[in-house]
Design brief:
The complex is a heterodimer. In chain A, 30% of the residues lie in helices and 18% in strands. Chain A has 18 helices and 23 strands. Chain A has a six-stranded mixed beta barrel with strand order 16-20-17-19-18-23. In chain A, strands 3-2-1-5-6 form a five-stranded parallel sheet, with helices on both faces. Chain A is globular. By secondary structure, chain B is of the alpha+beta class. In chain B, the strands form six sheets. Chain B has a five-stranded mixed sheet with strand order 2-1-5-3-4, with helices on both faces. In chain B, 51% of the residues are buried. Classes of the chains: A alpha/beta, B alpha+beta. At the A-B interface, helix 2, helix 10, helix 12, strand 9 and strand 10 of A face strand 11, strand 12, helix 6, strand 14 and helix 7 of B.
């Protein structure tokens, strides 16, 4: 996030798109709701009538995958009606003419046709947004989990820059991150193209720096594979050995049948985890790891805040900290790594190698942690980025993007759009929440959420079993008839193995990030 | 200069500030029960009564603003007598039996009874009988211990804004209710448990924590929630190396004491019997247990073979977005510095 959670409660205007915050980020949503009860305005853009809509001044139920057309429509109005922040655009951004040319192709009437939101409502939303400064934009996976995910994100950034909202408290572009440490795993360089602190592997100076620090030669310059490419590599033989640490790919990736075929094809599969999972079934070696409260360490949250994790109890049996396991493996390759605790790894290595985290040391993390960038040990961190519109990269780049439909759209045989996500009472594939007393009592099985209209038409009653099928596969699942879902849509989660949405989701990916289109595929529903 | 007289001493205040807040800022602690910091005072419990010169009656310090020159006494005999009476009345309002109460040692009413030297019940106990509601998996509601302070209602409506409970009925029949006065599990309640965290007595307690340890027996360890990316700060209540319950850290960024159902109640997976406790090596269709040395030697040997035969890029790895930073750092270091491949990724973009 460019900004901080503390800004949510203080915001005057919030634009939430593709985020079911009350279920996926419940505590973040409490600050949004608090702001609304204090007089702030909230606009929710989501195909479903999510619980947050109860607090919204406007809910725009756009069609699945129409985000860019809708956002371009808003920007068309902002420019046509001269409502955008000209001074900000002139002094802080570049690319306005190209953006203008593109969004002029999306008059509200055309945006309405694609998104299903009336031209009048598009105009009203644009005018409402322009009426309060700054406005805060929040998004979640409803934006990114599309074949046009990158372009969706660029559109959100375009809108906020056009409104002059980036670089201020209670403004910015704020993706709520799904996992407790997905921000941190990125920051640490668990990505195929960057070292820790986002230093590119194809930059010779960066390689030289890490070679020196790690006492090695010949660090590879070519960016590596992303997860879907690794999986395909297992089948085509490019990847022989696969090391899966704490991921249950067999349930989380789209098209489980294909994923399992990939895992099966591995010549050598190592799984390092805290539980046996659907993925560890394919392993050749399973290494038992210490969990959350059995470790000292740090997590980095959505707001770039590095916080301490502390040990409450010992790991069971022979389970060991993950960092220890990696260190032991390195030793067997003749590499002796000095750091012998999480604190030593952070203080003596990471913080010395990643300039944006140079000022973070464990001793400084006793209270509320620190939000990077923290360049020096006397820096207090950064609550919002690009202060006053002074972008880190110089000028903010306005990037014209075109709307593209999802890779698979409904047709006669598969007339519904399936969209997937997370529910309040469980987390991902339930490896953890499924083993917490009580949570299964609150949600014990998957459902296919469908609209009352469709239920009527198909003669399906609430709670009846139905079959949801796509070109990949089918699951039998109980129907949950709910006003939350618009007609033409089915909504499911991936918490339960048997009726996991990923038996049917489409392995189509954003060309840049290789993020799968979990939010849109075509399915049929049969009454059983 | 904005000053007033606080127990005979000159003290400063900012206009609009309550007597309670101004006193606290001047180092004078006034006891409270219903007062919920950072929320509008309700003045419901009358425990924070103080004497204000010239006022007709004692004033609730939480909801009375200080004025210039005001003379306030926080510990006079009259104040003590009134507070004691309030506590005595509250004690008679229900079944406050510390011996068997889960909140023993973590109860404001108990603390106040002790502070004001109450040795016996002055008034007979209310005859009102409420059943204990515990049909949901997490929260026990015992209305016989509820003092109607309204903190849970404020927390639900003003802090987490879930709007599941309110004060229902009237007068002596007053009760904290969900819509239609249904039990929690049949109501709008989303089980975040914020009501339990703010309950000053034993009316709302955690089912999973019952019997696992008294407040004074548990060590409090601050940590970060293992679920979504908000990074809520938690206090783990630990006794004999076991987490008994989890509460949100008050006044901490980013959550200010708030937690959701997973953050508050989703901690016991670590004690599951299904945990992996030893390295396992595939043998036919199953696995056999192995020592760390055997398992790690095998992994290293196989990876060396594969790298020698097919090159470093024939190895690929996925790191964990749930585990600590230092684990991801180590894994990418292993792949880059040791295996010499950039084939390292995680679920960053989903």
């Amino acid at each position: 996030m460019t900004n901080s959670f503390a800004h949510f409660a203080k915001a005057k205007m919030m634009f939430v798109i593709g985020s079911n915050m009350t279920e996926a980020h419940p505590v973040a949503s409490t600050f949004v709701k608090e702001a609304v009860t204090g007089g702030a305005q909230l606009i929710v853009v989501d195909p479903r009538r999510t619980p947050l809509c109860d607090f919204a001044r406007i809910h725009a139920p756009i069609r699945v995958g129409s985000d860019i057309a809708f956002l371009n429509g808003l920007m068309n109005v902002l420019i046509s009606e001269d409502l955008y922040d000209k001074e900000y655009v002139n002094s802080c951004t570049t690319g306005f003419d190209e953006l203008k040319e593109k969004v002029m192709e999306y008059p509200p009437e055309r945006a309405a046709e694609i998104s299903g939101i009336s031209a009048d409502l598009i105009r009203e939303i644009a005018r409402t947004l322009a009426s309060v400064k700054p406005a805060m934009l929040m998004y979640t996976l409803g934006i990114t989990e599309h074949t046009c995910g990158v372009n969706n994100v660029l559109s959100c950034a375009n809108l906020q820059m056009l409104l002059g909202n980036v670089g201020f408290e209670c403004g910015g572009v704020n993706p709520l991150r799904g996992q407790n440490n997905v921000q941190g795993a990125c920051d640490m360089g668990a990505l195929p193209n960057v070292f820790p602190g986002y230093q590119r592997v194809d930059n010779p100076q960066a390689r030289e720096k890490f070679e020196k620090a790690w006492g090695v030669e010949g660090l590879p310059a070519k960016p590596g594979l992303m997860i879907p490419q690794m999986m395909d590599g297992l089948v085509d033989g490019k990847v022989k050995a696969f090391y899966v640490f704490g991921e249950n790919l067999a349930n989380t990736e789209p098209d489980i049948r294909h994923v399992e075929h990939c895992l099966e094809s591995a010549e050598f599969l190592v799984c390092q985890d805290i539980f046996p999972t659907e993925t560890t079934r394919f392993a050749h070696v399973i290494l038992p790891a210490a969990a959350w409260s059995e470790n000292d360490g740090t997590f980095s949250s959505s707001e770039r805040r590095v916080n301490r994790v502390r040990t409450a109890s010992a790991a069971p049996g022979a389970a060991m900290p993950n960092w220890w396991i990696f260190r032991e493996l390195a030793r067997r390759f003749g590499h002796s790594w000095n750091s012998d605790s999480a604190q030593e790894i952070w203080d003596n290595e990471l913080s010395k190698l990643a300039p944006s985290m140079a000022g973070i040391k464990y001793v400084r993390l006793e209270g509320d942690g620190l939000q990077w960038p923290v360049p020096t040990e006397d820096s207090c961190g950064t609550t919002y980025l690009h202060s006053d519109g002074c972008f880190t990269c110089g000028l903010g780049v306005l990037s014209p993007v075109d709307w593209t439909p999802p890779a698979e759209v409904p047709d006669r045989e598969y007339p519904f759009v399936l969209s997937t996500g997370r529910r309040l009472y469980h987390y991902h594939t339930r490896t953890q929440t499924g083993r917490c007393e009580g949570l299964n009592d609150l949600l014990g099985e998957e459902t296919a959420d469908i609209s009352p209209d469709d239920a009527d038409r198909l003669n399906i009653r609430h709670g009846e079993m139905v079959r949801v099928r796509s070109r990949r596969g089918a699951v039998n699942v109980r129907a949950n008839v709910t006003e939350q879902v618009p007609s033409g849509m089915v909504w499911m989660a991936f918490h339960f193995r048997e009726a996991c949405a990923n038996w049917i989701t489409n392995p189509a990916f954003d060309p840049v990030t290789q993020t799968a289109e979990y939010k849109a595929c075509a399915v049929g529903i049969d009454k059983l | 200069m904005n000053t007033f007289s606080l127990n005979g001493r000159e003290a400063t205040f900012t206009p609009g500030q309550s007597i309670l807040d101004a006193a606290r800022e001047n180092g004078v602690e006034i006891p409270t029960l219903c007062f919920l910091k950072q929320n509008a005072p309700t003045g419901a419990c009358r425990v924070c009564l103080v004497e204000v010169a010239g006022a007709r009656s004692l004033m609730a310090s939480c909801s009375t603003p200080v004025t210039r020159g005001m003379e306030v006494l926080t510990e006079s005999d009259r104040v003590h007598g009134a507070r004691k009476l309030v506590v005595e009345l509250l004690l008679s309002s229900g079944h406050h039996d510390c011996l068997v109460c889960e909140a023993n040692g973590n109860c404001r009413l108990q603390d106040l009874a002790y502070r004001y030297g109450i040795r016996e019940l002055k008034f007979s106990r209310s005859e009102e009988q409420y059943t204990v509601e515990d049909q949901n998996p997490f929260i026990v509601r015992d209305f016989s211990k509820c003092i109607l302070c309204g903190r849970c209602v404020q927390a639900c409506n003003e802090i987490v804004v879930n709007r599941a409970i309110s004060l229902g009925y009237r007068g002596a029949k007053s009760k904290v209710v969900t819509g239609g006065d249904m039990p929690y599990h049949e109501s709008e309640c989303v089980m975040c448990g914020q009501c339990v965290q703010v309950c000053p007595v034993g009316a709302l307690t955690e089912k999973k924590a019952a019997g696992l340890g008294r407040a004074w027996e548990t060590e409090k360890i601050r940590t970060t929630c293992p679920y979504c990316g908000v990074g809520c700060q938690q206090l783990l209540h630990v006794r004999n190396g076991r987490i008994t319950k989890v509460t949100g850290v008050e006044e901490a960024e980013p959550n200010h004491g708030r937690l959701c159902v997973k953050g508050r109640f989703g901690y016991d997976f670590i004690y599951s019997k299904e945990r992996l406790t030893t390295p396992l090596i595939r043998e036919g269709e199953g696995f056999r247990e192995a020592s760390w040395d055997e398992a790690l030697d095998l992994v290293a040997d196989r990876l060396k073979e594969i790298i020698a035969k097919h090159g470093p890029d024939s190895v690929a790895g996925v790191s964990c977005a749930r585990s600590i930073n230092e684990d991801s750092y180590q894994m990418q270091k292993l792949f880059r510095a040791v295996f010499k491949t950039n084939n390292i990724d995680h679920c960053a973009r989903t």
